[in-house]
From TrEMBL:
Binding site for Fe-coproporphyrin III: S52, Y116
Location in or out of the cell: Cytoplasm
SUPFAM superfamilies the record matches: Chelatase (SSF53800)
Highest classification ranks of the organism: Bacteria, Bacillati, Actinomycetota, Actinomycetes, Pseudonocardiales
Entry's EC annotation: 4.99.1.9
Organism: Saccharothrix lopnurensis
Reactions that this protein is recorded to catalyse: Fe-coproporphyrin III + 2 H(+) = coproporphyrin III + Fe(2+)
UniProt keyword annotations, A-Z: Cytoplasm, Heme biosynthesis, Iron, Lyase, Metal-binding, Porphyrin biosynthesis
Iron among keywords: yes
Binding-site residues, Fe(2+): H171, E259
Family matches, as HAMAP family: Ferrochelatase
Biological role: Involved in coproporphyrin-dependent heme b biosynthesis. Catalyzes the insertion of ferrous iron into coproporphyrin III to form Fe-coproporphyrin III.
Protein name: Coproporphyrin III ferrochelatase
One Pfam family linked to the record: Ferrochelatase
Family note: Belongs to the ferrochelatase family.
Length: 339
């Protein structure tokens, strides 16, 4: 199979105050997020002038990937411009017939994997005679992903000697969504188990034996259970335990974005300061040159049909054609209550 492009598929984020509300409406359309939560999240964005760092960081990484791969690289998002539908139309007009897709998420699960397949379906439905789109596999246990986080944890912890608690954090999801993550015969929880596995690998690389895995940025109505504990609550619990310093590693994300700079660098950091805890946040991989190398390796691996380079034997999937699920009933979307 030959490919004539690479499509970088991401979440998207607003780039000015006027973008915030329409962006949030795109994110939450039909998802049962209460309006009060949206108002609150809008304030987080406006606190940063309505600009999320995510688009600029994607463009910066794409620049480095362009130097490493032999394919034109296009950029499209689920929720904000450049929208993936528009990018795909542009690709089609440029004569692209088959493209690889790099999704900016390392994990399985509905929000982290299957929803990107839905983006591919939606984009292809919007473009007549659309190019074929083949998505690249999950990479939570790739040696370059793990090494990048391990170095960022070491750098963040540098001022604390050995006296710190390492806390990994990933985006919370509804408990029901995590239960449905992966193919049904595996028993579910593929998202939280992959997050736990990546955390274990990074802790091992750093040489830390005691660490925690917690969740952040929960949304949805309060009566719906989401993965816990929350990172800010956890910082409080560590303070009560007498822990002196906390190093937070956002293992669930490939780049900084609003939920990293708000929930971690603002909320969790402020709470730690109030409690007199030392606090440091490990960098996400995006700006590490190894992240571009990781993407180039994943592309080369796919083109060569080479075996996956990975540090664990935990199941991974995600390589899909034209937005089909990884396997029948894999990460089935939840039936959401209409509001
Ligand atoms: C697993 C996961 C990832 C990691 C995988 C990946 O990276 O793709 C992720 C990433 C991100 N989530 C982001 C932003 C938001 N997520 C929301 C809402 C939700 N996220 C969910 C899950 C995830 N989200 C879920 C289950 C919801 C509930 C509603 C729904 O089922 O969709 C909302 C709505 C408001 C709110 O309620 O918080 C916003 C604004 C941004 C961009 C931030 C920026 O602009 O910089 C990024 C990278
Ligand atoms: Fe999210």
């Amino acid at each position: 199979m030959s490919y004539d492009a690479l499509l970088w598929l991401s979440f998207g984020g607003p780039e000015g105050p006027g973008d915030v509300r329409p962006f949030l409406e795109n994110v939450t359309r039909g998802r049962g997020v209460p309006p009060e939560r949206l108002d609150e999240v809008e304030q987080h964005y406006q606190h940063f002038g309505g600009v999320s760092p995510i688009n600029a960081l994607n463009r910066s990484a794409i620049g480095r990937v362009r130097a490493l791969v032999d394919l034109p690289v296009y950029f499209g998002n689920r929720n904000w411009h450049p929208m993936v539908e528009d990018t795909l139309a542009e690709m089609k007009a440029a004569g692209v017939r088959r493209a690889l897709v790099f999704p900016t998420s390392a994990y399985g699960g509905y929000s982290a994997c299957r929803q990107y397949d839905e983006d591919i379906l939606r984009a292809r439905a919007a473009v007549e005679d659309a190019p074929e789109l083949v998505k690249i596999r999950q990479f939570f246990d790739h040696p370059l992903f793990v090494a990048s986080f391990a170095d960022s944890v070491r750098a963040a912890a540098a001022g604390f000697g050995d006296d710190y608690r390492l806390v990994f954090t990933a985006h919370s999801v509804p408990v029901s969504a995590d239960r449905a993550a992966g193919p049904p015969e595996e028993g579910g929880h593929r998202y939280s188990r992959q997050v736990a596995e990546a955390s274990r690998l990074v802790a091992e690389a750093v040489g830390v034996t005691g660490y925690d895995v917690v969740w952040q940025s929960r949304s949805g109505p309060p009566e719906v259970p989401w993965l816990e504990p929350d990172v800010v609550d956890h910082v409080e619990a560590l303070g009560a335990e007498g822990v002196a310093n906390v190093v937070v590693c956002p293992i669930g994300f490939v780049s900084d974005h609003l939920e990293v700079v708000w929930d971690l660098d603002t909320e969790a950091r402020d709470r730690a300061a109030e409690l007199g805890l030392g606090f440091a946040r490990a960098a996400t991989p995006n700006e590490d040159p190894r992240f571009a190398e990781l993407v180039a390796e994943l592309v080369a691996e796919h083109l060569a049909g080479a075996p996956a380079r990975k540090l664990s034997d935990f199941p991974a999937a995600g390589c899909t054609v034209d937005g089909a699920p990884c396997a029948p009933l894999c990460c089935e979307p939840a039936k959401r209550p209409r509001r």
